Amino acid sequence: QVQLVESGGGLVQAGGSLRLSCAVSGLRFGSTAMGWFRQAPGKERKFVAALNGAATVIEYADFAEGRFTISRDNGKDTVYLQMEDLKSEDAADYYCAASDSGSSWYTNRQSVRVYRYWGQGTQVTVSS
What we know:
The chain is mainly beta.
């Protein structure tokens, strides 16, 4: 049974930082591409960042570039999202996702369609 469990969300002041974690089980984690997405109330789920199993291919959404860092620890089956200089518009539920799409991930890694497994989400609230 595949499980993705996010943690690390919470309330932070604008300009502050948070580190989200996603613990994964039931997958060959080291060969699984992972992504982070976010969804604000009433909005569609949007791509934040993603990386392949070896962390040699990493991509960020434009809004995340320079402020967010995605990383993974294959020894702990965990993927992280370090978020710096948080803004009010970063407030959302953040979801980690695991892809089983093989090579399709490399051409569609920003699409929710290439991620089969999803966590329950962790809420990030940013106060101004």
